[in-house]
Specification:
By secondary structure, the protein is an alpha/beta fold. Helix content is 33%, strand content 24%. It folds into three domains: 39 residues; 245 residues, no CATH class; 92 residues, no CATH class. The two termini are 14 Å apart.
Length: 394
């Protein structure tokens, strides 16, 4: 940020303060404002993470912690079921599984005691971080796009099975060695090139309609061709720093229904409804951080979502994501891909959660948020972004 912008910001803040103080003096409330600065109200007090290490918590200690928090002038706490990253000699014993019967009883006890003491309590929306848990099955878990290649010489009739792409070892697999969840996205042929360059978009041949049940049937023209099989499947990434008795897959951050399913499960297990939410006393749910492993982010309906954000079909351009280049097109398509990822993540992961919680009067917070527009959506956030996910330029 330039010096001019910094100075402008300072002037703006000072101007706002001056206007506010002048208005306060004009309506006779300056004394009240001064008194609040001298003795801040409870809601102006600090709040803090309240780590339930390894899911270990008992009702008596919960009450003691909350009483001490109030005595020290705190405004609230955020329950965080999280694994102890260092636990020499098993100093902290493993507690109960997050959102299991005993865990829910402890959380409900904390919320009730928080209300009794006038403290606001929120909770991280998973054990560890980001979003996920043992309840997440492969069909709504985090997904990537994978590709395999096969070289054929034409002219020839190509008939047979195409190789399945290599997927991460952590990807859940069936007894036959294939992923539990996968969807074929496209099969595309491109002319062989030592430098992986495609002269024209028209040189790309979409063979998807000639591919069925793993088998391809195609009359290849003269020349050497590289056949690319694109598959959507799970990355296998699991919760980070989850407590020992609750692990599980990340949710699919690009699919709104996965976010809604995850948050609804939390509310249902806690017994929160729009009608009883004020009595339950859960003030907010937070998505902590955003740390996805490297790879081509994808989801089942991503071609549809890409079309919505960018206005055209991404399928013919998929070789670019596999490392091929199309002069005059590569950078533009990668920009659009990153743009679609950014917009879809904001919509799916953050906006969806916010909108689902709104009827409950529960605030949605996030410690990892994309771009200023997303920060405005959340109203409160820490601008932390640790994910290696490409982002659209502002």
């Amino acid at each position: 940020m330039g010096t001019t912008k910094i100075l402008s910001g300072i002037v703006m803040v000072r101007s706002v303060l001056a206007v506010g103080l002048t208005a306060a003096a004009a309506d006779g409330s300056f004394a009240e404002l001064e008194q609040q600065f001298r003795t801040p109200p409870r809601e102006a007090g600090p709040a803090a993470y309240w780590d339930w290490l390894d899911g270990n918590a008992d009702l008596k200690t919960i009450t003691i912690d909350l009483v001490e928090a109030k005595a020290k002038g705190m405004s609230g706490l955020e329950i965080w079921d999280v694994g102890a990253l260092s636990n020499p000699g098993g100093l902290v014993p493993a507690g109960t599984p997050f959102l299991g019967e005993e865990s829910v009883a402890a959380i409900r006890h904390a919320l009730k005691e928080g209300q009794r003491l006038g403290l606001r309590l929120g909770m991280i929306a998973s054990s560890g971080w980001n979003a996920g848990g043992a309840w997440v099955t492969p069909d709504w878990a985090l997904k990537h796009l994978f590709a395999s290649t096969q070289v054929v010489q034409g002219p020839a009739q190509v008939a047979g099975r195409l190789p399945f792409p290599t997927v991460p070892g952590a990807c859940p697999k069936s007894a036959n060695g294939l992923p539990v969840f996968y969807r074929d996205v496209a099969v595309i042929a491109v002319p062989q090139s030592a430098v992986k360059s495609i002269a024209r978009l028209e040189d790309i041949v979409n063979l998807t309609d000639r591919f069925k049940d793993g088998q391809l049937s195609w009359s290849a023209p003269a020349g050497e061709w590289v056949i690319l099989r694109f598959v959507c499947s799970n990355s296998g990434q699991r919760l980070i720093a989850a407590s020992p008795k609750l692990e599980g897959l990340f949710t699919d951050f690009l699919e709104p229904s996965a976010t809604a399913r995850h948050f609804q499960l939390i509310l249902d297990r806690l017994g929160v409804t729009p009608q009883n939410a004020p009595q339950v006393g859960l003030a907010w749910l937070e998505l902590d951080s955003m740390e996805m492993g490297e790879g081509l982010q994808w989801t089942d309906r991503f071609p549809e979502y890409f079309q919505r954000w960018c206005g055209y079909d991404p399928i013919p351009y998929l070789p670019i994501l596999a490392g091929w280049k199309i002069p005059g097109t590569t950078d533009a398509f990668r920009y659009d891909y990153n743009h679609a990822l950014s917009e879809q993540l904001i919509l799916s992961h953050y906006t969806t959660a916010r909108d689902l919680l709104r009827p409950y009067g529960i605030q949605h917070l996030a410690a990892g948020a994309f771009r200023r527009r997303c920060l405005r959506l959340l109203r409160r956030s820490n601008p932390e972004l640790l994910a290696p996910v490409p982002r659209c330029a502002n």
